[in-house]
Amino acid sequence: MKQMTKRIACVVASVFLMAGLAPRAEAADYTSSGNGNWHDTATWGGTLSFPNGNTDNVTISAGHTVTVAQVSTTYTVSNLTVYGTLTHLANTGTVEQYKINLAVQGDLFVDGSISAVGKGFAVSASYYGPNGAGSGHGGQGYDLGVTYGSITNPVNIGSGGNVSGHGMREGGGAILLTVAGATRVDGSIDASAASYSGSHFSGAGGSVNLTTRTISGSGAIRADAAPVVSNGGGGGRVAVILTAPDADFTGFSGSMRALGSTFTSHSPGAPGTVY
Q1: Residue 24 confidence (pLDDT) above 70
Q2: Percent of the chain having pLDDT more than 70?
């Protein structure tokens, strides 16, 4: 029987290796060792696996950027601490592919940034309304930029700037977080559109969707459009849902916002939604 068990274990290990996968290690503490993709083991110091388990504690160190680079993937961890930056790949076309989607079984602490700034739809891609309109999402872009998505459960990325040749940039991406325990934000959770040096046709803000037992901290949660002079984009969508029976927002002294394009001398974009 022992011989058979050993043979089975060897066969399973061989299957993993032939498939290009490392055998799943036991639950552990994962700390970033440099910049890299979430699913690359080198990002976590060359461990046998990347973090994706109910008892995996994850820390993104200051100065490191960890990127979610898998399409339509939800990662599950125990506790997540962000001193550096957690982001996702940019969406390059008209299809929503890349988002941050995390299920945290314990607590979330953000001292650095969870950022999807400028990771939404590409320039002149999707939901921008008629030619010359500011891009929309949670708020209407100037001159009928289209709104879309959910107020209470936002999941969409923001539209890119509308007219080529004006230095426009991309819309904001999407940050979807489900936290069973407590969330503290002293840094930022940001799905704003990309800032740029042009003067017209801003990208729209993306989505921040946070469900958590409680929230505290003094940081910022936002999904703003980029500031422009005219033909502004609409703000994105922010939703923060507290699940503890007696929870409220008194412990959070920071800001939650989804601004339309600011600094406009005329034709601003409309604010998005904050729920």
Answers
A1: no
A2: 77
- Between strands 57-60 and 65-68, the pairing is unpaired
Compute the C-alpha angle 13/16/17, nearest 5°: 85
Alpha-carbon span 23 to 12, nearest angstrom: 9
Specify the pTM.
0.86
Q: What is the 3-state secondary structure (H, E, C) of the chain?
A: CHHHHHHHHHHHHHHHHHCCCCCCCCCCEEECCCCEECCCHHHHCCCCCCCCCCCCEEEECCCCEEEECCCCCCEEECCEEECCEEEECCCCCCCCCCCEEEEECCCEEECCEEECCCCCCCCCCCCCCCCCCCCCCCCCCCCCCCCCCCCCCCCCCCCCCCCCCCCCCCCCCEEEEEEEEEEEECCEEECCCCCCCCCECCCCCCEEEEEEEEEEECCEEECCCCCCCECCCCCCEEEEEECCCCCCCCCECCEEECCCCCCCCCCCCCCCEEC
Supply the Cα-derived Rg of the chain in whole angstroms: 20
Query: How far, in Å, are 94, 194, 261 from residue 151 at the CA level?
Result: 22, 22, 19
Distance of alpha carbon 81 from alpha carbon 184, whole angstroms: 10
